[in-house]
Structures are given as C-alpha cells and as structure tokens.
Amino acid sequence: MIVLDTDFLSSFAKIDELKLVFRVFKTKEIVITEAVYNELKESPVFDLLLAYFSSKENKIIIKKVSAKSVPESLGEGERASISLAKDKKAKLLMDDRDAGEYAEKIGVKVVNIPTFLFYCKEKKFLNSSQLGTIIAKLNAKDFYEFGKEIEKTLISDDSISKKQ
C-alpha cells in the first residue's frame, strides 16, 4: 500500500505527474486519508484529482482513519497519513520535514519528493532531461525549491561520469 499526504499529492497533481507515482510503485491504487481528502477539497488542485477518484486504473482510494497517538502539533492530514501508514506498514509519500522525521522515528518508511526523484533516476524511470523538466515544473507551479547539490545530482548525466 502507498499512502500519500497532501503536500506530495498536491505537488505532483499540479505538474500533471501523478501517473508517475502509480508507475514507479507498480500499483493501480494509492491511498489517502479522509483528512487529506478534506484538505485537498479546499484547494485549487482538487479539480485536477477528480478523475482519479472514479478511475478503474490509477485510482485514489480514501480511508477514514483516527490519528491516534500522533502529536497534535502536526496537521490533521499528516497525523492521519502517519497513523494509516504505520497501521498498514505502508510507504508514506510526504514532504513535510517535521512530520516525516516523526513518522520515521516511529518506524514508518517515508519518501519525500527528492528521494522519490532519486529513486526514479536510479531505476531509470526518468532520465536527466525529464528530471530537469519535473524540477522546473515543481518550481514554477508549486514554488518547490531543491537544494543546489540535490538538484545538480538529480539532473547530472551519470553516463558521462561513468565513461571517465
């Protein structure tokens, strides 16, 4: 099971790359919590997700979850997503640093946006040019900032360095 939090889902919806998540994890379904759904409902990105709720393939499933024993200092969506991922031993795609650190501390496998893109590069789902395009779209449409070293490593062409 793959659980997505609001920030990760919203970022990939804004750049029209949500299908990449399904492809990379070889799944026809991703799961969000009702709390994440409610956060997204208030967002302009919601219209971009509507088709995924009724699709037979590449479908978003909504689960009702109580965010038990997760600090209230985290957002509702984060709390519910962490609880669901922990209960189901699922991967959690989340980009909030504090929530991600807490989730990892309690044994949840968290994948943030840079880690996801490094995986896409490593497993050859995306080449350097495609990664550069995604990075540019994330910056333009979601104001997502990568650290200079992370961006440089993501878009470097490994085939050149291997030849030397």
Structural write-up:
The protein has 164 residues and is mainly alpha-helical. It has two domains: 2-111, 5'-nuclease (Rossmann fold, 3-Layer(aba) Sandwich), CATH 3.40.50.1010; 115-163, no CATH class. Helices cover 57% and strands 12% of the residues. It has ten helices and five strands; from the N terminus they run βααβααβαβαβαααα. Strand 4 (91-93), helix 6 (97-105) and strand 5 (109-111) form a beta-alpha-beta unit. Helix 3 packs antiparallel against helix 5 (76-88). Residues 160-164 have low confidence and may be disordered.
Tell me the fraction of residues in β-strands, as a range. Answer: 5-15%
**Assigned CATH architecture of the largest domain:** 3-Layer(aba) Sandwich
**What's the end-to-end separation, in Å?**
41 Å
CATH superfamily of the largest domain: 5'-nuclease
Q: Class by helix and strand content?
A: mainly alpha
Instruction: Report the CATH C-level class of the largest domain.
Output: Alpha Beta
| Count of beta strands | 5
Q: How would you sum up the global shape?
A: globular
In spatial order, strands of the major sheet run: 1-4-5
How big is the Rg?
16 Å
Order of helices and strands: EHHEHHEHEHEHHHH
Average pLDDT value? 92
Number of domain units = 2
Unreliable stretches (pLDDT < 50, length at least 5) are 160-164
Q: Report the biggest beta sheet as strand number plus sense, adding barrel if it closes.
A: 3 strands, parallel
Q: Roughly how much helix do the residues carry, as a percent range?
A: 55-70%
**Tally of separate helices:** 10
Stated plainly, the CATH topology of the largest domain is called: Rossmann fold
